[in-house]
Structures are given as structure tokens and as C-alpha cells.
């Protein structure tokens, strides 16, 4: 695996703390009530997402920044187009692929074996795998998701902002991913749009390996 592949693998698939735009104001009055209600709301918000499109900014543990376009369609489909056009990360409902057009290589992971399974695996129950993390700001909800039976999958902290009109009243702001080696990376989402029609063909991809054609869905 090249050093470039290692960086992007740590950065998005396995993996800078996500900087919130709102400084901590005051803790929510009842932590226990918040845990129960907000964890349920986050679960509903994820399940209510049919499609999502927008921009993303990725910052790794070294402070390196990449940006691009994001498409998400449930169940289990996501696409990260990086601005340079030489790297694509895409999930087809079953597997997550990293396609490096610069070196002509493809890597594959089952969706549930990565922290992104918290968003893309419809069988993942946050009530079982997630716990609310304190934010100090009643407008911000953070849920840490890990599989205690598989620490090698890493940890993802999903960050939501309360917003009327968003699914279950919560808008996905981004996430912080940490791999088993402790490498941390953040993804910040902007310009989000919900419910727009996205064709399944958006999650197909050109395989850069010789005689492979179009990648699977």
C-alpha cells in the first residue's frame, strides 16, 4: 500500500478534532434526559435520510485538508468526489471502495466493517452501539459509535446541529473518525440538500484497473 493510500485510508475509511462554529454556552440541564431523547432522535434522523447532497471538507491528523462533493442515498450508498478528481470513495450498498485513479488501484471494505457503517448500515442500532457525548452546547448533539466486539473497526463521533426542518430536527454537521491506532480525522459538511432525486448510477464508478470497466453497485 502506498503512503498516499495509507493517508486516505486512515483519513476517511478507518479514522484534527471537528471544530464546531458555536462555542460552548451552557450544559443541557438534564444529561440523562438528553441521552435518552437525543440518542433516539439521532437514530430517527439517520433512518429518515433518504438522500443527501452537499460539500465536504476533510481534515486529517496532520492538518492536511481535502474537499469535494458528497452524495448519499439510503440504504448504504455514498459517494465522495475529491476536488482533484484523482480519488473517489464510493459505497454501493454492500461495500465501500477507495478508487485511486492516479495509481490505478482499488481497495474494498464491507460497509459494516468501517465507522461509516453507523450512517450506511441499516441494521446498525445506535441504541446498542452509540452513546451521547457531552458537548456543552444544547444546540449541538454528538453521538459516539463503536462496536465493542470489534475495536478494529474504529470509532466515529457523529455531530448534529439542531435545525427545524431537518430529519428529526437534527442536521448532520459532520463527524470525527478515529481508527484503532488513534489517528483522528474530521469531515465537515456544508450546503446540504435533503430529498433530491439521486440516480443509482451516481454510485457506479470507472474501474482504473485494466479490462475492468465500470465498478459494481
From TrEMBL:
Source species, domain of life: Bacteria
First and last residue of the signal peptide: 1-31
UniProt entry tagged with the keyword Protease: no
InterPro entries associated with the record: LolA/LolB/LppX, OM_lipoprot_carrier_LolA-like
Keywords, comma-separated and alphabetical: Lipoprotein, Signal
Pfam family, one: LolA
PANTHER family: OUTER-MEMBRANE LIPOPROTEIN CARRIER PROTEIN
Protein name: Outer membrane lipoprotein carrier protein LolA
Organism: Sphingobium nicotianae
